[in-house]
Design goal:
Layout: E1 9-12, H1 13-27, E2 34-38, E3 44-47, H2 50-64, E4 72-80, E5 84-92, H3 109-112, H4 119-129, E6 133-138, E7 147-154
Parallel strand pairs: 2-4
Antiparallel strand pairs: 1-3, 4-5, 5-7, 6-7
Helix pairs in contact: 1-2, 2-4
């Protein structure tokens, strides 16, 4: 017996990010993170309404990994072409072994992100369902050890 897969539709990425930020700000009981988002209005991806939840989860994890009273989160378009879009969400400081940066659904990732609970694994599975992926990358700056999530999504053509 196979599960019926819902068809994926056209989702505006800027709108999904804005909805995720609004939902996060409503849920937080402490100081909400300062979120800077720079997403062009014309980018559309193959996804569904759960994309907002995935983005919200990643932003929440980034905020919880910052050891300051007023965390700052940056959400930007890292790259895009005719096929895929890469959304960068960060920054945070954590020691994430290189072999764990690509497989965020593994049970071992809880050792690095204990506060992420099942949210990170669920977001990873949802993004995989969309035909995309989530990975962790560093800033490639030897003086800056911060990391960020990079979400790769299929562009809606």
């Amino acid at each position: 017996m196979t599960k019926d897969r819902r068809p994926l539709g056209r989702v505006n990425l800027k709108t999904a990010v804005e909805r995720a930020v609004l939902a996060l700000n409503r849920r937080l009981h402490r100081v909400a993170p300062e979120i800077f988002a720079d997403i062009p209005a014309d980018i559309e991806v193959r996804a569904d309404a759960m994309l907002n939840v995935c983005i919200e989860t990643l932003v929440r994890i980034c905020a919880s990994m910052q050891e300051c009273e007023s965390p700052e989160i940056r959400i930007l378009l890292a790259a895009h072409n005719d096929q895929v879009v890469e959304l960068a969400i960060g920054y945070f400081v954590a020691h994430v072994p290189l072999d764990m940066r690509e497989d965020l659904a593994s049970g071992r990732i809880k050792l690095v992100f204990p506060q992420a609970e099942a949210g990170l694994a669920l977001a990873t599975e949802i993004i995989r369902y969309y035909g995309g992926s989530i990975r962790i990358e560093d800033t490639n700056d030897k003086d800056d050890e911060r990391l960020r999530f990079v979400v790769t999504l299929q562009k809606y053509n």
